Amino acid sequence: MRTMTLMTCVAAIACATPARAADGYREPDLSRAEEPVPFLLDPASRPQAVDILPPAPAPGTWRHEADRRVFRETRALQGTPRWTLAKRDVDMAVPAMLENFSCAAGVALTPVKTPMLAGMLTRVSADAERAIEPAKAANRHPRPFALDEGPLCQPKEALTSFDYPSGHATWGWTIGLLLAELAPARSTQILARARGYAESRVVCGAHNQSAIDAGLANAASLVAALHGSPEFRAAMEAARAELGAAAGAARVEPEAGGCAVETGALQTAH
Q1: Cβ–Cβ under 8 Å, residues 152 and 206
Q2: Which pTM does this prediction carry?
Q3: Which residues sit opposite 29 in a β-bridge?
Q4: How many Å apart are CA 264 and CA 200, to the nearest integer?
């Protein structure tokens, strides 16, 4: 998740370098300008995922066995269009996420064309990290390939954090919820894409299904808390106006830019 925030800093966004303990998570030093500043600066205003989410599945439980079965069965998706989409969904940076949701939003989303949206999501990425990393450190749940063999859509060396909850699922569903609020007429397509983005981590073999489910719940609690911030609500209104203007000037047709291929891949049963 830290990779995401370090890759999403943009001009005019205050940033800071995080400090980490060897055995867990520490708050970043917000006096330095290298990581986005969250909207929820007061720790008391942040939902505590460790207390909200159920513990990660324990060995021998039905949830644990279900995770293992899903991992083994989804290895058959290697080489399919759904696998290709899962590989594309590895990138968590804001520019990539804007591109990922452009077809669903019906608008070409880029940091240049929609800078207010990009800037808001950059800051939200810092809030998302704070909703994810402490819960990962508390659960210390291994990723699926630690128990079962099978192909992955990205190198194991890149998957160094713990499994539960999924950072990708939290991040993708957070963006989906926010975009659905900004563009309600496209909410079905946007939320379907957010669901698919989260499921790409199961297809990829990078996360267990339980980590995806936890990520969606984690995102919902984060978005609810964000709406308590006046600064966040103001950023949403600015992004809403920008998105409305972009919708009239930069339409994305369903067949253009691989949208039809993306839709077909998302409909793959697994």
Answers
A1: yes
A2: 0.88
A3: 17
A4: 14
